[in-house]
Design brief:
CATH class: Alpha Beta
Strand content: 35-45%
Shape: globular
CATH topology: Nuclear Transport Factor 2, Chain: A
Distance between the termini: 47 Å
Order of helices and strands: HHEEHEEEEH
Number of helices: 4
Largest sheet: 6 strands, mixed
Number of strands: 6
Number of domains: 1
């Protein structure tokens, strides 16, 4: 395993299940790109520890029984880069709807910490589970 692939594995294992431990993995200047999040009214980029923790706290409060599974981590020849595919499911508390998602995550490490995340997910699945409009679509 590389530094980045180890961090990516630990990111998935601790983000929800041991958030205090997860917080030790992230750099203070972490940037987390949520590429398709603007489609459901969320920011495209979280910059810095405070912004990331605010968003993660909101997310953890919005879901119940969230779990990741079927994790596949792909190390890179660059030890500071790794890519993962992972599935997840949860209950959205506000709607009572089941949420099922597939994610692709790119992680870049720096000085042994998570310095950059780029996350791709299907915004249609998220919108349906949250009863949210998909912004930018004409009705």
């Amino acid at each position: 395993m590389t530094i980045a692939s180890d961090l990516l594995q630990r990111h998935i294992e601790t983000l929800v299940d041991d958030n205090a431990q997860w917080q030790t993995l992230i750099a203070d200047d972490l940037e987390w790109e949520l590429v398709f999040a603007p489609s459901i009214g969320h920011p495209p980029l979280l910059s810095g520890r405070d912004a990331v923790l605010h968003h993660v706290t909101w997310f953890l409060g919005a879901v119940a029984n969230f779990r990741f599974f079927d994790l596949r981590v792909y190390p890179s020849t660059d030890p500071e880069l790794a890519i993962a595919e992972v599935r997840a499911e949860a209950l959205i508390k506000a709607t009572g709807k089941f949420y099922s998602q597939e994610y692709v995550v790119f992680l870049r490490a720096k000085d042994g910490k998570i310095a950059h995340l780029r996350e791709y997910f299907d915004p249609v699945r998220a919108a349906k589970a949250m009863n949210a409009p998909i912004l930018g679509l004409e009705s």
